[in-house]
Amino acid sequence: MAQQFMLKTGLKPKKVAGGNRMEKQKIFVIGDSVSIHYGPYLKNMIKHKFDYDRKRGVEEALEDLDKPVGANAGDSGMVMDYLAEEHKKNIKFDILLLNCGLHDARVDRDLNKVQVELEDYKMNLTKIIEISKTMSNKTIWIGLTPVIDEIHNSRKEGVLRYSKDIYAYDIAAKEIMEQYNIPYIDMYNFTKNLGTDIYSDHVHFKEEIRQLQAKLIADYLNLI
Questions:
Q1: Which of 9, 147, 216, 220 can bridge 152 by disulfide, Cβ–Cβ 3.0-4.6 Å?
Q2: Cα Rg for the chain, rounded, in angstroms?
Q3: In three state form, how does the secondary structure of 159-196 look?
Q4: What is the pTM for the complete model shown?
Q5: pLDDT by residue for the chain (224 residues), tens digit each?
Q6: Could you tell me how many helices (H) and strands (E) the chain has, helices first?
Q7: Residue 185: which of 27, 14, 17, 22 has the closest Cα?
Q8: Count of CB atoms within 10 A of residue 4's CB?
Q9: What DSSP designation does 158 have?
Q10: Apex CA 107: angle with CA 63 and CA 199, to 5°?
Q11: Region for residue 214 given its phi and psi (left: phi exceeds 0; alpha: psi -120 to 50; beta: otherwise)
């Protein structure tokens, strides 16, 4: 599975001063609540080779996974703003692991309006990649995760999401990553192919699925 994602990274290992031991590359994650769930598994799977870190505020985010607060980076506009602020501080990353889109595709059930229109999402992603290229040695994009309309929208309240929208946003992201030569890990199709009995709620996944998602990313990273 990981072979199809293998790309030349151009990254060079760092030597620790005074010895031959190589310093671990530092990976920083900016992503949604799905990334929070698979994050601990990913951290453990790559710990021999990478130092894992992410946007702060995991406990705050876990209080309500539907709210984009703390470690839950939210929609593309929020990710863009966060990176822009970090850029002003001259923050640098070895490897930046990015994803957003599930919040962009949220539909307000009262207004019947998507949170971030697809064309705005594309523009935001272009800006995100342009900023990230100046801040990191390597940027990697993680695809969206699918929803099943009947499961997600059976709730009596909360935002709606539609499979057709998630697919369209994921395809748009993939095309932009190809345009900018950014590695893209196809989390969407990988997760979709795991079946339908995979959700712990309307949009998040069971523990065993989180582990598989982490392994997908780890298999790619461990080839670097």
A1: 147
A2: 17
A3: CECCHHHHHHHHHHHHHHHHHCCCCEECHHHHHHCCCC
A4: 0.89
A5: 433 333 333 444 454 444 445 789 999 999 999 999 999 999 999 999 999 999 999 999 999 999 999 999 999 999 999 999 999 999 999 999 999 999 999 999 999 999 999 999 999 999 999 999 999 999 999 999 999 999 999 999 999 999 999 999 999 999 999 999 999 999 999 999 999 999 999 999 999 999 999 999 999 999 98
A6: 8, 9
A7: 27
A8: 9
A9: S
A10: 55
A11: alpha
Tokens at residue 123, please? 């523009």
Residue 182 tokens read as: 């950014």
DSSP single-letter state for residue 29: E
Amino acid code (one letter) for 145 = T
Structure tokens that stand for 7 in this block: 């790309």
Task: Say whether 156 sits in a helix, a strand or coil.
Answer: coil
List, in order, residues 6 or more apart from 45 with CB less than 8 Å away. 214, 215, 218, 222
Question: Which amino acid appears at position 56 of this protein?
Answer: R
